[in-house]
Each structure stands twice: as structure tokens, then as C-alpha cells.
User: What shape does this take?
Amino acid sequence: MIIGLLATPVLAAIMIPFARRWADYIFLVLATILLAIAITMVPTESVRMLSASEIGLPGDFSFRIDGFSTLMLVLTGFIGFIVAIFSLGWTREYTYYALLAVMFAGMNGLILVSDLFSLYIFLEITSISSFALIALVRSRDGLEAAYKYLMLSAVATAFILLGLFILYGSAGSLAFEEISRLSANPEHAGVRLFCLALLVIGLAIKSGLVPFHGWVPDAYTAAPNPISIALAGIVTKVAGLYTLVRVTFSVFGVTPTISSILMVLGLVSAVVGALAALTQNDGKRMLAFSSISQMGYILLGLGTGSPLGIVGGIFHLFNHAILKSLLFLNTAAIEKATGHRDLSRMGGLASRMPVTGATFAIGSLSVAGIPPLNGFWSKLFILIALFQSGHPVVAFIALITSVVTLGYFLVFQKKALFGKAEARFSDVREAPLNACLPAVILASIVVISGLLFHEFIDLLIEPAANVLSRGSGL
Amino acid sequence: MIFGVIGLLFFIGLYALVFSRNVIRLLIGLEIMIKAVTLALVSSASGTQSPALGQTFFVTLLVIEVIVAIIFLAFVINVYSHTESLDIRKLTQLRG
Amino acid sequence: MITPVLLLIVILATLAIYLNDLLLGAICLAGVSALLSWVIYQFGMPYAAVFELSVAAGLITVLFISTISLVKPAGQSERELGLEAGNPSPLPRLFEEDAREGKALKRLPLVVAILAILLWELRESWPSIRYAPAFDAPFAETLWHIRTVDLFGQITIILCGVFLVVHFFKERAS
Assistant: This one.
């Protein structure tokens, strides 16, 4: 099964150049297979280490499966499935689909590793392939975005590697268990903290947290639409946040100092992202800043270290993946219908594009935190956790930021979708099926996971949270 | 002693990345940073129980970084054929 | 014996950035790689050393030089391609008049020298490292049998690079 998750995408990528006309269908089949495999892995009680020999692979390394991993695998598979549907017939270039396949191979690998060097390898695979996908655009903005991404990604890699190798010298091994065993040892703690700082800086760049977020607005905006969906929906989460959380919680262990640092990072990103989103006219750019803000929320929840905070953080991670993919999908549909993304020149499209309008309304209400949608619950948990762990001021700031979030989304909705329909939009039609269907699926998940949030949390979120709580020293 | 050199090299590379305007000089800076990292790997690995593992890491690291350098250079050539310039000021308009 | 070589590495690295001529910079980088390769050999890692020599000092330098040649407009020397902050070139300018690159980069040797002296003063507090000149036999076994996942990673990244380069050069040709 693990072989399936890693080998199938690579095989598909190799196959695609030989079957160029069916590249998009191959990718759809691949995405379905990955999603199916991930779903079968869900009932996972505890941490399991599968060594290579158990699976039948040559080598002496092992994979790690636990509640958090399976959740991320399902999420990755699902967003991949959505992107695959949306990408049907997107472009005639087979390199697009091949690179997408490689990117998913990288992400799956990233979720499954159990030592830091393999983590680096799959992180590089993901970064390089996502850079390639951003750079596929031919516009000048695309080149600028791709350049910024490449530069910052390379710097992040250098930081991560430096932290990694100094740690190797100090700890003698790069396997997760070895390092977490050594964390109890007070010797060389200063070196370990320094290495953790380097790793956090590098991974914060990859996650797009403030003040390392320079590449995010350009990349999300200028990338081809399905890539924006993939980037915002899953790549920054897996390659950035998930890795960051994994390294801090499961490998190093969270101390009160580290918890404060994570919370500060999260709070700053949440506030700056929300404020910047208010001033944007381009729909995708606004969503990019909103993503920065929501990632800050996730880190804020996880940083508290308390069980409720961790549950809230992970739930918000899941919700945000679904929601941002939905919102970017809608923006793509609007762009296809009207030919541009400038919010000041739109109006009243909802009457012509009912599906887009409805799903967009559901999505933005959820991000803003309106009950009973899923975004409301995850934000509520995070706020309560902040309050409970003794940070009422932080909770208050987060609450105000939430109101700001509601503000800019309402503005977006009003400008683009509601209001009087302009005459020049009289021949605007609803988006094609392969854009509507994913939007409807995503919106239904938003509603269902909001209404049935208790069952949802028990099934998916709780196992993940338990894994992280064990690594938390609080 | 060796850590001082590693730190210096890393700093030189970072400095070049921050203050260069020519993309090729940027790439030279990046390569210097990676050399600092490889030096860190080698000095760390020689102190552990299995230097062979360190060599394996080294080989893989170098392969990956070569691919990154190739991709970067291909990108630079692409950018040059679009904008006729190697100046990143022309490429990046600083926005919010 | 290692110390003067390390010092030389730092000097060459500074030169690689400081020089205006990009081609000379690439050659300095090759020099850094060659010296680094020797240092790695002293650490007892012959395979890594030969890899560094052939790949970094060889392959990457060749890539740099070919890129510089590819983007150099016909008829202009490399000197105009590197930014000359103080001496405006008489030929059509490729870059805007802005001395910022010159000033900050020209200060680099000074900054490096100051930092080096600082670090030398603090040398007592650095953790020590020992050089192990033992040559480890099972390198091949480690690479092929133990860390096979690395090979998978290498193949995947190479695939990635191939697709990207194919795409970029298809675009350039069209």
C-alpha cells in the first residue's frame, strides 16, 4: 500500500510522455487510486513503523503511519482528486500532468517518512515540482512569481539542511525516534535548539508564514488556476505546516518556549494576512493573503499545545484545505466566465452562475466563521483553547481578526456576485461541469462536516490530535 | 574551527543572495551556501559511527542540488529570452 | 594543514561574489569546490570527495559557463554582463543605472574579514570536531542496500528536472 502511494505516481509520470493524448485521464485515474489507498488506511489506532523489509522493499529504512499521517494522506488524495477533475482538458502539454503526478509522489512521501534526510528528499521533490508547475505560465507575472518561489525555496532548503546536518553531528542519527529519545537528554540542548530554530525558519518559509511569506501572494495569483487550488489547498500545508508540526511535536517535543514561538508566528501571520487581504482588488491575491492568515490560525491553535487547541488546529487545517480549494475553484470559474479577476469591475454574477454563487457563499461564510459551518467550529475551538491556556489577549486579537476576515469576504461576495447584474454580463454562463462538480462536492463537505462536526472529529481529527498530544510536553 | 568556516561560507552566500542584482551571481551565492552545508555534513558525519552513511547522504544531496542548479539555469535562460536582461530589478516589482 | 586551505576557501568564495566578471566568478567557484574536495578527502570520505570534484567543480562549472555564454549577447564581452557599478559601459546598457549592487557587494570582503576575526577570537567556545581518517569499507552497501529510498528520490527528482527542462526549452523554441 505504501508502495502504491509512492510508486504509482512515479509510474504514471513515466507513462505520461508515452500517452500524451490521455495525460489528463491518466492523472484522474492516478488521483482516484491514491485517494482510495489513503481511505483504506484510515482506521489507524496507534503509531506504526513499517520497515522496508515488511513491505517487501530493499533497504533498511522505515515508514511511519499514525493518525496524523493518515489524515494528511486522505486530505492530499482528496484535493488531488479535485484538482484532477478540474484539470481535465486544461492544457495540451503533457508535462503539466507529469509534474502534478511527481508532486503528489513527493507529498505522499513527505507524509510517510520517519527520518529527517528522507524528509529533505521528499520536500525537495515537492518544492521542485511545484516550482515547475508555477513556472508553466507564460505571462510575465508568472515568471516573477516563479522566480520568487524558487529563490525563497532554495534559501529555505539551505536553512533546513544546515539545521539537519548540525543535528546529525550532535545526535549521531537522523531517525525520528533517535532524536526524540535524545531530546530528554539535557546535554547538547543548546545545539539542538539552534538546529530547531534553523529548521523552523526554513519550514516557515515553505509554509508562507509571516515574515517569510514574500512568495505566496505572487505565486498563488499568477499560477495557473488548478495549481493555485493545489498550492493553497494542500502543498503549503503538507510541505510546510505538516512538516513543521511533525518536526516540532514528534521529533523534538514541544516546550513552553517553543509553544510561545509557534503562537507568535501564528498570530502575526493571522493578523498581517487578514489586514493585507482587505486592500486587494484581485480576487486570487485576496485569497492568497487570506490563506496566509488562516495558516496563522492553524499554527496558533497547534501552538497552544493543549488538547483542545490541537484538535482545533488540525480541524482548521482540514477545513481550510477544503475551503480554500473551493474558493479558488470559484474564482477560477468567475475568471473563466468574465475574462478577468478585477473585483471592482464585476457585479451581480450570482444570478447567471447559480452554482458558483451558492458554493462561494457557503465557502466564504465558513471561512469567516459563521455557524453551523465547519469553519465556525474549528475557530471556536482555537479561541477557547487560547482562552483556557491563559492567553486571553491573544484570543481577543484572534477574534477581532476573525471579524476582519468576515469583512473582506463579504466585500468580495458583494462586489463579484451579488448586487445588480451588469448588462455586459448578459451572456455569461455557468462554469463547465468539471468545475461545478468539484465545487459542489467541496461545499457539501463544508456543510456536512459543520453539521456533524462531532462525528467528524471523533473519526478523523481525534486520532491525529492524540498523536500530537503525546509529543507535547505541556 | 570548522563551524566558523561553515558559518562564514553560509553568511557569504546569504549576503550574495540578498544584495545581488544579477541572477547568475545569485546562483553563485546559492551554490556557496550549499557548499557550506556539504561541509557541515562531512564534518558531522566523520564524527559519527558510520561515515559511510554520511557519504551516502552526500551523494544524494549533490545529485539533488545539481538538478536544482540545472533547473535554475534553465529558468534564467528562459527569463532572459523573455526580458532581455539579467537584472532581477526588472523582474520583480515590489508589491505588498 | 587543513586550516590554511579552509582560509583559502573563504577567500575564494568572497572573490567569487566580489568580482565583476561572472566568468571569473564561476572559476573561483570551481576553485572552492576543488579545495573543498581535498578537505573532504582529509575527513576520510574518498567517495564524497571524488563526487564533489567531478560534479561540483566540473559539471556545475560547465553549466555556469554555458549559461553565461548563452545569455551573453553576441559581440559583448563578459565584463559588460557583470554589473559595473562605477564604470558605465559605453555600449548599450542592459541594466539601469543604480549603484546599489556595487556598494553593498564591494563591502563584502570587509564584512567577511571582520566576522572572521570575531570568530577567531571566540574560537574557544566552539564545539570541537575530530577528523577521522579511517576509510569506511561498506559505502556501496550503504548506498544500495540501506538507503535505497534515496535512490528513489534521486530518480524522481531527475524526472522532475527532465520535465521542467523539456517544457522550458519547448517554450523557447516556439
